[in-house]
Design brief:
By secondary structure, the protein is of the alpha/beta class. Helix 12 links the parallel strand 5 (about 255-260) and strand 6.
Length: about 625
């Protein structure tokens, strides 16, 4: 259970020593390294209990992290971590242990590697499948500049499914830079391969004796025409019988593995040998996600990330029962999708490895033949949906806003250009909170509304979300509904599948002088500000097409329009209003409130909105600097 996490910091004498001098790590003997790994794992459990955050992946790479920093001269040698979920042990070993209590909080440590945070964080990440490309760039840069530097990319079995990773593997096999890729296979994505025989041969292939024989044979046979190629192919076929490395060998990599990623002495020995080899090297290790914490080992998905461990509150008869929580937007989507699928067998659901996060667990259980998890392959997900739409299906693609950016070319070329009937359910739109700028979905309105044939909706509550999804699905063409992370406003949900009229907004409050045009879930802030300003509030609902008739009507009766959205101001919904006002010839002033031209730091979701100025106070301030002085006297 989660309550089993430690609430007091465990004694960690080796960690204490390394906190003042990391160079000691390279001098530790094998038994001390094992003890250090044990201390690091317990310290990690304590740290995450106090802050929450990504959990299982870090526990799984404790031994690997210790081995990497023991063998390599970091930060001179570069370690590039893919995605970054697993880097909490890395942060703790590299001078940030005492700041772990600030993890994912405003002005605290980032939950991901961040170049400005530490020289040990060599590349900022958050999206997957980037590490091999980045590490290759660093290896080539070192080569060009004559710098003796080791470069290592650590990538998981989920991230390596991304097409970008294979593009980099193929290119590196051609360029042959001196670099090492470590595949951390926690058996969450890549299928099981072989068993004891594979491990036995992997140890042989990673031995000094075998390496010496291989290099010596190469020098000898390279002078005999065709002999080395034949020997290499024989080696590859032999490996292919007992290990999954043939594909990597064919791409030009020297493959070793799979090895036990929790066998620290074996890891150290193998890394020391491979660090001296030239050209692209590939080490495949097997790990257990959540290693060392039994609940996380049993449920690696549930313990991928956890919330902060709060102390139990005493039960009192005087305390009123907690108000039921509003449903999360992702669950509203999941329920809508299930309800729709029971009525139309053309419905298929697609996700790029975000089943749980997108609320599709129930759909996957009830409709397994209509559920497609394409792994971390957003571009493929978009074009897969396009192909399905070509031949009679009605696909719904559930995807996070920040990850849809990766499928942008496919969205334009494969869906919109052909005006295909695909529904995009865009989750995590706006500011997501602690995961920070790599995961904020603050650009989708800007990058979607410039695409012809697109319909774009931004519901202001969970009930609207359900019915706007239905509108999008009924629309015979590409349509996107974007909604935020977290819970709704607590409004009643109509369980019917009635659609809302596309392109029609609603006046929710009548006022004078100022009208607030709200796009999305900031409606409550608009209504609070309107009370102070005696302003009208318009729930626009649709970004494309705009309700132009309603905007003109409002512009005729007000001196100033204030647009409100949880998206970048540049090119966003407010920009579309300003463009229309300019073309219409209306003389009404327009002010925009949205994400400013900056990346918003990680913090709580509410704090992020404060940082971005998406508050009732910001609306009032904007109004008071926009309305002519004669009108301000009535505010």
């Amino acid at each position: 259970m989660i309550e089993d996490l430690p609430t007091t910091r465990p004694a960690s004498p080796l960690m204490d020593q390394l906190s003042s001098d990391l160079t000691l790590l390279g001098q530790l003997e094998s038994h001390d390294l094992i003890r250090l790994a044990d201390e690091l794992r317990h310290d990690l459990l304590y740290a995450v209990a106090g802050t929450g955050g990504h959990f299982g992946a870090g526990l799984g790479v404790v031994e690997l992290t210790v081995a990497l920093h023991h063998v390599f001269n970091t930060p001179h040698d570069r370690i590039v971590w893919d995605v970054g979920h697993q880097t909490y042990p890395h942060k703790m070993l590299t001078g940030r242990r005492d700041r772990m209590s600030t993890m994912r909080q405003l002005e605290g440590l980032s939950g991901f590697p961040k170049r400005s945070e530490s020289p040990f964080d060599t590349f900022g990440v958050g999206h997957s499948s980037t590490s091999i490309s980045a590490a290759m760039g660093m290896a080539l840069a070192a080569q060009k500049q004559g710098i003796d530097r080791k470069v290592i990319a650590v990538i998981g079995d989920g991230a390596i499914t991304g097409g970008m990773a294979f593009e980099a593997l193929a290119h590196a096999g051609h360029e042959r830079p001196n670099m090492l890729v470590i595949l951390n296979d926690n058996q969450m994505s890549i299928g099981h391969n072989t068993g004891g025989l594979a491990t036995y041969f992997a140890k042989i292939w990673a031995s000094k004796t075998y390496m010496a024989m291989r290099e010596g044979s190469k020098k000898l046979l390279e002078h005999v025409r065709g002999a080395w190629d034949l020997a290499k192919k024989t080696e590859e076929h032999m490996k292919g019988m007992v290990a999954p490395g043939t594909m990597f060998e064919e791409l030009g990599w020297h493959y070793i593995g799979p090895l036990d990623g929790h066998d620290l002495p074996q890891l150290v020995s193998t890394l020391q040998i491979m660090s001296e080899l030239k050209g692209p090297q590939f080490l495949h290790i097997r790990t257990i996600k959540g290693k060392g914490f039994a609940p996380a080992e049993r449920d690696p998905i549930g313990y991928h990330a956890i919330n902060k461990l709060e102390p139990a509150k005493p039960v009192s008869d005087a305390v009123a029962p907690a108000k039921p929580k509003a449903p999360k937007y992702q669950d509203v989507f999941g329920q809508w999708l299930c309800d729709l699928a029971t009525q139309d067998d053309r419905v298929v659901g697609i996700t790029p490895a975000m089943c749980e996060g997108s609320g599709m667990v129930e759909f996957a259980k009830r409709f397994p033949d209509r559920y497609y998890d394409v792994a971390i392959a957003e571009q493929h997900a978009v074009t897969l949906a396009a192909g399905m739409a070509c031949d009679g299906l009605k696909p719904v693609l559930a995807i996070y806003s920040t990850f849809l950016q990766r499928g942008y070319d496919q969205l334009i070329h494969d869906i919109a250009l052909q005006d295909l009937d695909v529904t995009l359910a865009i989750d995590r739109a706006g500011l997501v909170g602690q995961d920070g700028p790599t995961h904020h979905g603050t650009f989708d309105l800007s990058y979607l509304r410039c695409i012809p044939n697109m319909v774009i909706g931004a519901p202001s509550d969970e009930n609207q979300c359900r019915h706007m999804l239905q509108s999008a699905w009924l629309h015979e063409g590409p349509a996107a509904i974007r909604y935020p992370r977290g819970e709704g406003r607590g409004v009643p949900i109509d369980s019917s599948l009635a659609p809302l009229t596309i392109g029609k907004g609603e006046v929710v409050r009548e006022g004078r002088d100022i009208a607030i045009l709200n796009f999305g879930v900031l409606l409550d802030q608009a209504l609070i500000a309107a009370e102070t300003l005696n302003a009208s509030v318009i729930d626009m609902r649709w970004v494309k097409p705009l309700d132009e008739a309603l905007i003109l009507s409002v512009a005729e009766r007000h001196n100033c329009l204030i647009t409100l959205e949880e998206n970048a101001i540049a090119g966003g919904a407010g920009s579309s209003v300003a463009e229309f006002i300019a073309q219409s010839g209306a003389t009404c002033a327009v002010r925009h409130i949205g994400i400013p031209d900056t990346f918003i730091a990680h913090a709580g979701q509410g704090e992020c909105r404060q940082l971005a100025g998406l508050t009732a106070e910001a609306i009032v301030a904007a109004a008071q600097t926009s309305v002519p002085m004669a009108s301000q006297q009535t505010l």
